[in-house]
Write a structure and sequence with these properties.
heterodimer, A: 380 residues, alpha/beta, three-stranded antiparallel beta sheet, 12 helices, 22% strand, B: five-stranded antiparallel beta sheet, 19 strands, 20% helix
Chain lengths: 380, 286
């Protein structure tokens, strides 16, 4: 062991002990909403994932997606998932004209890895074909500044709302959150101990389409279906991970399971046209961007995220980087995001990819890989 | 009147009646030196100093006024801080002289007009715990951190049976060595008290300090926002049942409380917006 690693180990030791001691934090969930008879997660297809891939989906030299190919991938994926004869019929299995539908996008990886314009636009097109008017379709994300950067507006029909809960990640805008639906927990002695659900989710939406990306995440290992819809629908969640310790192991799944979010999230479309294998959830450079060029469909967020764990870990291995499961003190440079960005063998927090398995214990889906049926489709 | 204003002296009587004395010229050295200097209130970035909770570092003076209520104070304020200092002095009933930057005259005037227009009340402070005054700087820093964490305390001369928890720095339960880290010390006190037992909680921000006064019939919540940014939807939880009341926000006047709920032995409500300062008056329902 070199001296630097030894010093890091010494520095991290108390934290590691603290983490081992801390276990799962006590949380108090408050919600007046009852679960639906058949909650959206895991929905009608637990343990089932359709993965559609196409080498032509993205021009890797430019990063540009091929809209026509993406639409074909979407159509085939939805038909395969539902067994419907037509694409329209596949979408009608989930939606009806009276629905108010939210599309949970992910803008944190701007500019290189966000919920693709082509996929978001296609979801809206299909919803409108079902009969859902644009005025009942809401693209949403927590932060307005991120939505502004990504700017979906020119790519979607007039009348579609683009909604954020806060202007930016500054913890000063609470009016977009429901004061009566929240998780309360004291993780690190913070004063503000509540994470509230977005009002849009609890008070307006009837159904949600979740469109995460295939991304690494410094605190959770990966950020997929669970993390996107959970941390992207509640306030004040960054407090769960700091100073090397991450409570995301239990909090991601717990948030995703809170009603009405759990019941209303009816469709998962994992955008893997582009991915991030390190430095996530951000993608400020192309250094850690890769191109899976696939889209996964399902209703079970755990099953899709279980596959994502392997996708990100395999990509990291291909680059000689430490596993997302690495918990060694030698890899930990606490809160040193600059070091993390420079070196894929640096963790700034001990990651908790086990959050996916934990979510399965809450009934959100199937984690056991042997029980997950994956249907691979290739579009040429 | 404010064109050449340089100093404002705020004094209050027991009924929160505000007396404001303006000075357009230099005050005497004797008057200035007779007053204890207070820090410029606000939020500061402390490079290289990590907070255990990443909470912003608030510079607030209320704890000092509570500790020495009879003292006279002075603020020597840079531009942009006069209104905040006036609100802080008012909330804690301080006899304070504000030496201001001329650029702040308009904002200070607006704040003073707001303070003068508030309904008058004369209510005692509400506390959840006692802190034994030993006159030390360590005890003072503990009071500072307790105030910043909105842990309501009363200063006592000796352990008090009126409170479930009495903090005496240097006692076996609260050794002075632990108080060397006031933030951790305050957290220990909070966890001994438990959040469930706290009379007042604030959600949606960590940069607002509250002062709570009241009796069996009514309460007044002072909210001072040290951040310099407006906060929307700040939520307050009070133990006890309180009906709808009146809220007044500097810059906005009378505002309606939102999402007012009385349940589970507590009252909760949200303020649509708070700039520097707001006051909420609530009447008990019993």
């Amino acid at each position: 062991m070199d001296r630097r690693a030894f010093v890091r180990l010494l520095a991290a030791a108390p934290l590691l002990r603290a983490q081992i001691r801390s276990g799962r934090p006590a949380v108090n969930v408050v919600s007046k909403y009852a679960p639906a008879a058949a909650p959206g997660m895991p929905g009608p297809y637990p343990g089932r994932v359709v993965s559609v891939a196409s080498a032509k989906a993205v021009d890797v030299s430019t990063g540009a997606a091929n809209d026509e190919i993406v639409r074909d991938m979407m159509a085939r994926g939805m038909r395969a998932l539902t067994g419907a004869a037509t694409t329209a019929e596949a979408w009608r299995r989930f939606f009806e004209p009276a629905d108010r539908v939210g599309i949970k996008v992910n803008c944190g990886g701007y500019p290189h890895c966000i919920s693709a314009y082509e996929i978001v636009a296609e979801v809206i097109r299909q919803l409108m074909d079902v009969g859902v008017p644009p005025s009942q379709i809401f693209i949403y994300e927590r932060f307005q500044n991120q939505l502004d950067e990504v700017n979906y507006a020119p790519r979607v029909p007039d009348g579609v709302s683009i909604v954020a809960a806060e202007r930016a990640n500054r913890n000063v805008d609470n009016s977009g959150y429901d004061p009566a639906t929240y998780l309360e927990a004291d993780f690190f002695g913070e004063d503000d101990t509540r994470s509230n659900m977005m009002r849009l989710v609890s008070e307006r939406l009837m159904k949600i389409v979740n469109i995460p990306n295939m991304k690494d995440h410094g605190a959770t290992g990966v950020t997929g279906c669970l993390k996107n819809v959970a941390y992207g629908s509640f306030s004040n969640v960054a407090r769960t991970h700091q100073r090397g310790v991450s409570h995301t192991y239990s909090v991601v799944g717990t948030l995703a399971s809170i009603e009405p979010l759990r019941s209303r999230t009816v469709l998962q479309i994992m955008d893997g046209l582009r991915g991030v294998w390190h430095g996530g959830p951000f993608a400020r450079t192309t250094r850690y961007v890769f191109y899976p060029r696939q889209i996964m469909f399902g209703t079970d967020p755990v099953a899709i995220d279980r596959l994502l764990l392997d996708i990100i870990d395999n990509e990291r291995k291909a680059h000689g980087a430490i596993s997302i499961w690495d918990r060694s003190a030698a890899s930990l440079r606490m809160d040193d995001s600059r070091a993390r960005d420079a070196d894929p063998n640096v963790n700034i927090i001990i990651r908790e990819p086990g959050h996916v398995e934990y979510a399965s214990t809450l009934g959100l889906g199937v984690y056991d890989r042997a029980r997950i049926a994956v249907q691979d489709i290739r579009v040429d | 009147m404010f064109a050449a204003l340089s100093c404002v002296v705020l004094t209050q009587d027991a009924a929160d009646r505000l007396t404001i004395r303006f000075s357009t010229g230099a005050l005497s050295d004797a008057e200035l030196s007779s007053r204890e200097a207070l820090a410029t209130p606000g939020v500061t970035a402390r490079a290289g100093v990590a907070s255990p909770t990443r909470a912003p570092w608030i510079v607030a003076n209320g704890w000092r006024v509570v500790r020495q209520p009879g003292a006279k104070y002075r603020y020597d304020l840079p531009a942009g801080k006069a209104a905040l200092a006036a609100a802080e002095a008012f909330a804690y009933g301080a006899d304070a002289l504000l030496k201001i930057d001329p650029a702040d005259e308009t904002s200070l005037r607006a704040m003073l007009a707001f303070l003068e227009g508030l309904p008058r009340v004369d209510l005692p402070a509400i506390a959840d715990l006692a802190v034994v005054e030993d006159g030390t700087a360590v005890a003072g820093e503990v009071m500072n951190l307790l105030a910043r964490r909105n842990l309501l305390y009363e200063i006592v001369k000796a352990p008090s049976a009126r409170y479930r928890l009495t903090v005496a720095v240097g006692s076996r339960e609260f050794p002075v060595e632990e108080a060397a880290d006031p933030s951790a010390f305050a957290l220990k006190i909070r966890r001994l008290l438990t959040d469930e037992q706290r009379t007042l909680r604030i959600y949606g921000t960590e940069v607002v300090i509250a002062r709570l006064v009241g009796d069996a019939a009514r309460v007044r919540v002072h909210l001072i926002n040290y951040s310099g940014r407006e906060i929307e939807g700040l939520r307050v939880r009070l133990r006890g049942a309180y009906g709808t009341g009146e809220a007044f926000a500097a810059g906005a006047g009378r505002v309606a409380l939102q999402d007012h709920v009385v349940a589970g032995g507590a009252t909760e409500f949200s303020l649509p917006r708070i700039g520097i300062y707001a006051v909420i008056d609530l009447n008990g329902t019993r």
